[in-house]
Amino acid sequence: MSHVVLDRITKRFAGHNALNGVSVSVAQGEMLALLGPSGCGKTTLLRCIAGLTEFDSGTLTIGGADMSGVPVRKRPIGMVFQSYALFPNLTVRGNIGFPLTVRKSPKAEIEARVDEMLALVGLEHLGERLPNQLSGGQQQRVALARALSPGPEVLLLDEPLSALDAQVRTRLRDEVRRIQHQVGITTVFVTHDQAEALAISDRVAVMNAGDIEQCGPPAEIYTAPSTRFAAGFVGNRNTLELSAADGRVTAGGAFDVAAPSDRVLCMFRPEDVELSRDGAGAPGVVDVTVFLGAITRVYVHSQVNGHQAVLFADLSSRAAADLAPGDQVRLRVADEHVQVFPA
Ligand code: ATP
Predict the structure, then answer these.
(1) How far is the CA of 39 from the centre of ligand 1 (A)?
(2) Are 80 and 175 in contact (CB under 8 A)?
(3) How many CB atoms lie within 10 A of CB 167?
(4) Is 192 helix (H, G, I), strand (E, B) or coil?
(5) Which of 120, 129, 125, 128 is nearest to 179 (CA)?
(6) Buried-most residue among 23, 115, 257, 266 (CB within 10 A)?
(7) Is residue 208 within 6 Å of ligand 1 at its C-beta?
(8) Around Cβ 313, how many Cβ atoms within 10 Å?
(9) Is the CB of 42 under 6 A from ligand 1?
(10) Ligand 1 centroid to 287 CA: how many Å?
(11) What pLDDT digit, counting tens, does each position of 6-35 carry?
(12) Which of 65, 3, 49, 63 lies closest to 28 in space, CA to CA?
């Protein structure tokens, strides 16, 4: 059942549209990631849900209730932002209990809830510390615990991990996912980091210039992008601009696919590129190999329909071990792994 429903939301700022009539629903207990480049409208959409930004037209319902005119503090939401925004003069316990103190909940109830939240985020031993005595990752755990302590229906997370270093960020990302599952809370998570969006969410909404271009499960977004923008934004891809003949495009023997127009962009992932010493495929010469641990990225100079192109293939490092610059290879991509868009 849809829990949060946005229907044709538009927002205009000083002459330009930040949101062009965005419609999306989030199911009960689902984690939806809003993914897109800087300025595409992710934060504006999240702020509309929170009530921090008033939208110009469209409707928003949470749990079936229309949110128009409902102030931020009356909405059933919890929020965590990029900056930790903890109260510096309150301890960890004080911060987590703050929303309940404001509500004038009984003291014993607050203490029990704070204990529960500290256990949830794994900070039982740090309750008496002040925020400036915590690491960035610990501060974001406190911010998450504080957002969850009043038991909101919906959690809104705006780039909550982006101020953290890479290792802490990955660990906390997985932790946020665990906590979200455990609590079963409907969540909207804003990020410009595609790996984060794919890893953390049930569905990803790929945003571009105020629109949602595609919304679907991470595997679908990754393997079957429905627009050129989604294909280019999520994951690494080779891109070839080619001419079609008789409704098909052949790439020097690398693949043979139906073409929707005379000029097309063909996009395919490096892990879908097969290299062989002989046999079928477009001829190429290995340019350079880059060892990345489990995989090796192999750059190949290839002639595709009369044009020189540098393509890259991600092979298991074992498979790539006997390839060296200057080697002659054949390059192939299974037709079903090629996405074709009008150029
Ligand atoms: P980022 O990842 O950089 O935070 P974003 O996708 O969250 O980007 P938004 O912050 O939603 O993008 O901004 C969408 C557009 O609206 C941008 O062009 C931005 O400049 C504009 N915008 C956002 N807030 C305001 C405002 N208060 N006044 C005027 N323009 C705004």
Answers:
(1) 5
(2) no
(3) 9
(4) coil
(5) 120
(6) 266
(7) no
(8) 29
(9) yes
(10) 41
(11) 999 999 998 889 999 999 999 999 999 999
(12) 3
